[in-house]
Structure formats: structure tokens, C-alpha cells
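Next comes the chain:
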Amino acid sequence: MVDHFPDGARPDPDAAYARWLATCRDAGWRGQPAAEPVRVQDALARVTAAPIGAGELVIPAGQRLRPADLAVVAAAGHRTLDVARKPAVAIIPTGDEIRPVGADLGPGDLIDTNSLMLALLARDAGASAAVSDIQPDDPDMITAEIRRTAAAAGLVLVLAGSSAGRSDYAATAIAAAGGLAVRGVAVRPGHPALLGYARTGPERAGRPVPVIGVPGYPLSAVVIFNLFARPLLAALQGWHAPEPAHQQAELACDWTSSTDAEHWVLVTLAPAGDTFLATPGRRGAGSISRLMRAHAWWRIPSGQPKFDHGELIDVQPIQGAPQVPDADHRGS
């Protein structure tokens, strides 16, 4: 059942995430357990050259394994290691106007760039990703595809169709496939996002699998993935996603935001004396090229409507973003 917040207000991202997980757990979802820690065997600890004592923890549960980690485990005498399974993400593009990458476009057609981008983001988060064929604007077909893909997935992303337009069927399809926990989140871009779950069997039977209805605009899709898919995938692997790096910058212009939502604003950075100058991009969620050129996200909490030119703000550098001209200034 959809969670109705007071006065129809959309929940903030943290409240929406908590409600989503609670609804999935109430439906029977348990996620995946973390890997068991590996400890050095007493006899091997006496003969190995690794500087690790008998019974000492080698790899804590939930750590993403690096080459050096595996080398130390091998030196400690372990030939195998229990690990959490890599979660699978099913990506379902929808829409009569959506066409595969490389297809010839007619009037009103759009290329399915979001599936490509989200599949790569999922792999960057440690998951595998499989993209379905594009589904038409038919709620029954979308529901069937959600159920089909959920059978082999730990998370399902349904692309587009999450707002309240005439042909936006994602909410109906997710509810029919299992249940809808949250409809709309107080974040911009990304406010039409949907959070729910699907059952893997017919007639709403089978195990529950979390589902996100991802808005169709590219920047909205990235924000919703970072807020909801990334922490869930970390939890499915038994580790906590690290807090994003932050750095301070000086705002290059006056800025106003509505107070009813958290805002994610792309900024470009330039050196300015002993700090950076942060220039916000234009508003809107449709241009993926802005993400390609930006250096950082400026995450503005709800309730903060006005910022002045020259004010210091906290920004989150984007991994792999173009290098800022002055390499001596970097975030924490």
C-alpha cells in the first residue's frame, strides 16, 4: 500500500528510503547476509610470513576485496573465501517513444541512454546489470516484465513512466507486481520517483524484490540511483557505502531554491585564490551533457531558499569528472 504522508507531502529522501525498506521487510524481504570474516588458522599463522597473529581478523565482513586483501588471505593459507553474491540489477526501459541506441529515430522518438548509464552505474556499485527489451506503454506488459526479471534480480529499475501523466504506468505496474511503498520524493530533480517491491511468482506470490520507478529525465535518474539504488546495493553486498567526499567552494552567483524539497545542483569549479569558485548550471533535469561537464554536485537541504554570491557552500566532487584546472585544490 502506498504510504500517505501528512497533507500529501512527499517524504524527504531519508524518510522515503526508510519507509521503502520497512515495506519490503514487512513483505518478507531479507536481503543478503554479509560475508563471514576470515581468520588466520593457528598453525598457518606460525609459518606464514604475513604479519598477522593467530586468530587475528584478516578481512572484516562487508569489505570490498582489493588485490592486496586477496594476497594476504592467500599468504594466511586460505584457498577459498566466502563472499556475498554480486547483486543483479534488472533494468526495464519503458515508453512507446523510446528507441534502442543506434536505431533510426522518427518524430518524437528518444534514444534509450538511461539504460546504458544506469547499467554502468550499477556495475560501478558492485552489481551486475541486465537490460530488458523496451516495453510499450502497456501496464500489463510492464507488470509481466517486472515479475519476470525480478525472479533473477536483487533490484529492479523501471525507467520512465513514474509521474502522473496519461501514459505513465509505472506506479500501476509496480503495485500490480507486488506493492507500492512511496509515490514521490521531496527531491529535485527526481521528485516523481517510485519505491516498491515485486513478487517473483504469479498472483502476488513468491519472494519480494525491491523495485524503483526511475524518472525519465537523465539527471533525475542519476539522483534517484545515488539516493536509493546505491545504498541498497551496498547493503546487499554487506558493506556500507562510504560517505561522499566534500569540499568547500565560493558561490559564483546568487541562488534561490524552493523550500519544499532537497535540491541537487550541478556545479563547475574554477580556482579562485585559495579556494574554488562554484558556478551552478541552469535548472532542469533533461540534459545529460551537463553531467558530463560538471565537477560536483551541490546538495541543498530542503528549507534553505536563498544563497548569496560569495557564500561558502559544500559540494560533492563527482567521481571521474573533468579535472579542475588547479590540481592543488582537492576535496577531502
Notes: The helical segments are 13-26, 42-47, 67-75, 113-124, 139-150, 170-177, 218-236, 288-293. Residues 42-50 have pLDDT under 50 and may be disordered. The longest helix spans residues 218-236.
